[in-house]
Structures are given as C-alpha cells and as structure tokens.
Amino acid sequence: MILQPMNQDNRKIIHIDMDAFYASVEQHDAPELKGKPIAVGGSSERGVVAAASYEARKFGVKSAMSSMIAAKRCPGLIFIKPRFERYREVSYQIREIFYEYTDLVEPLSLDEAYLDVTINKKNISSASQIAREIRAKILEKTGLTASAGISVNKFVAKIASDYNKPNGQKTVTQEEILDFLGPLKIQQFYGIGKVAAQKMRDMGIFNGKDLRDLSLEFLEQNFRNMGLHYYQIARGIHNSPVNPNRQPKSVGGENTFEKNLKSIQEMQAALVPIIQKVVDRLAKKEVKGRSITLKIKFDDFSVITRSQTGDEYVDQFDEIYKIINELLILENPRKPVRLLGVSISQLNLYAEKTVQLKIPFPALKKGL
User: What quaternary structure, including any partners, is listed in this protein's UniProt entry (predicted)?
Assistant: First the structure.
C-alpha cells in the first residue's frame, strides 16, 4: 500500500517557539542574571526544574529534572521561583503579535504556537519573511528571542523550529522534506516518545531514512495503531490543520510535597487544595469531565495512576473528592508518597457552541 501525500504546496505553516522562555523572562527582568546558569523551579530536595537557561543547559540541566540532580550537575546553578502570572503576561504580548498576521493561531503552551499564514492580513507571500518579522517584533516588544520553523505542515514546521535554536529559523519546502527528515535522529521526530524511540533503536531504526525504508505492513505489525502515523511522518505527511479553537483533552493539577506523606489521612488532606485547583480550572474553561484520575508518585519515583469513568459529567468539588478518595482508599499506598495529582478527562467541550468556518483558500504561488 503506497500513500501519496496530499498537495501541501500551498500551505504555509509557521511554528514559533520561544527560547528558554521562563528562564529568559527572568534574565530579562533581572539583568544581573544574564549570562548566568539559572533554573526556574524549587531549590528544595523536592523541587523540580520547570525551565533552564542555556547557560545551565550546557551542564545537562533540563526541565522536569529533580532540583537536587540539577544542582549537582551545575554547582553554580541559581534557582528562581516561578512567576506564572508574569509568564502569561508576556505570552499574551507575543500572541498579539501573531494576530497582526493571522487569526489562524493554535497555541500549544505559553511559549509556542502554530500559525497558518497561507492567507495573511498583510498579504505577504513569503512565510519566511513573516517569521523574521514576528521574531523581530517579539524581540522589540519583550526583549526575548524566538526561533521559528516554516514548512507546509505542522509536523515539519515544529521540527524545523528546533533546528537553528536559539534565535534562528529554518525553512523546509515541500521538495526539501525528505532530505531534511532523512538524517534526523529518530528521537528528534515530534510525536515519537522515549519508549517508542528506544524500541525503534533496538530494531535498528536510528533515523528518518531508516523509518522511511520500512513498509506500512511492518510498522503496523510492530507498532499497531501507531504504524500508519509513523509511516506518514517519515515521509513528511501531516494534514492536521492549524486549529485556533484547540480544546484541552484534560484538566489537572498536582503537588510535590516537601516531606513524604505516610498516612491516608495526610494524603486526604493534601488532596483538598489540588482538587480545588482542578475545580477552578474546570470552571475557567467551562468544561466538565467523566473520567477522574488519581496520580501517585512514591519516594522511589515509581508512579501509578488509578481512574474511574462515570456516565455523568462532573465539575463539583464534592463529586470529584468522593471519587478520588475512593480510589485512594482502594489503592491504600504502602510506600511514602512524594507527589499527588488529580486530572479530569473525557471533557464535554460544548461543541454545540463552536461554529466551523469554511474559508476558501485560493491557489497561491509556491514558495515559503
């Protein structure tokens, strides 16, 4: 079975990714931190690195790393308490720049987004020029640098944005996609996680060309429902549109504790503010959910999750706490607990409120 890519020639997609966003905001707001290795996150033995400056990354410090490990890797590491309100403020400033060019903006997080500039408000034919202008305006308005990837689909654009980091950009045309993806290490492919990447390496699949050389039948046999996806991305096929109305798949919250929790009573008490945070986030997004999940991380860093899915959508504290408490009691943790988390999925996204607009896209000249 041979799959031919859809005609992507006329699509012009930009992926903007801020450079070490949280850490860069801190260095911008406190000039004395510029050029120094900093980590945004808690400095205690329970702390976790949320972001690291490029100076810290040279020592192997990275996000989601234990603060203790980060401090050992980089003895002069400076820890900064996160200021998420400030990061959101800067993110909104950046997003305003995006909307100067297109309304087809799909934010992925505070520091990255996809833009479809096939048709844009400034009638600029070159997506590469638009990316340069956006990056220059971000620098002028916020003092921060951004990197960009430009291509005919979201998948290639996202990979390309990482190619010339920091403060750079990379354009990959339709004709260049196979040559661009071929030598890339398999772990550089967005959407291939650590487990899948290791499985591929064990099978002798080390780069994009190795993956592209495999048949669809082989990939489906070894990777089941992900086989078709891997077959397509190895060829740069990705037809997902930029979605300005992207909805969350789940809403959650968690907390890592200064001291391990050793009793059910301690855990029950610790879950109260976490669940309240989730309830507040559900209310803000105007959603409810049917599937409720409890996450437990033990002192040996092993993690378990326990879920319950009902027929009714819930968003109230009492409803969620009752189910979470039942899951906790059923699990009855025997080891000390360092983290608890709660998430709600299978959300009712109020699809009836969403109006799908069909925008006619006239044929444009090739070129990014």
Answer: Monomer.
For 122-150, the DSSP string reads T--S-HHHHHHHHHHHHHHHHS--EEEEE
pLDDT of amino acid 283: 85
Structure-token pair, residue 353: 């409120």
Residue 298: other Cβ atoms inside 10 A: 16
Query: From the candidates 100, 112, 175, 331, which is the catalytic residue?
Result: 112
Higher-scoring residue by pLDDT: 46, 90: 90
- The residue-averaged pLDDT of 161-180 equals 97
pLDDT in tens, 215-227: 999 999 999 989 9
* 320 Cβ neighbours under 8 A, 6+ residues apart: 275, 278, 279, 292, 314, 342, 344
In this structure, is residue 300 part of a structural domain? yes
Domain-terminating residue out of 35, 64, 83: 83
Confidence band of 360 (pLDDT split at 50, 70, 90): very low
Catalytic site residue 89? no
Residue numbers of the domain that contains 38: 21-83
pLDDT of residue 9: 57
156-164, Cβ contacts within 8 angstroms, sequence gap of 24 or more: 156/180, 156/181, 156/236, 156/238, 157/13, 157/14, 157/15, 157/114, 158/15, 158/17, 158/114, 158/190, 159/184, 159/188, 159/189, 159/190, 160/15, 161/15, 161/16, 161/17, 161/112, 162/17, 162/188
| Positions at the binding site for Mg(2+) | 17, 111
Give a yes or no: residue 103 inside a domain: yes
Output the pLDDT for position 367: 66
Q: Which residues contact 198 (CB under 8 A, 6 or more apart)?
A: none
pLDDT of 233 reads 96
Task: Give the separation between CA 362 and CA 152, rounded to whole angstroms.
Answer: 16
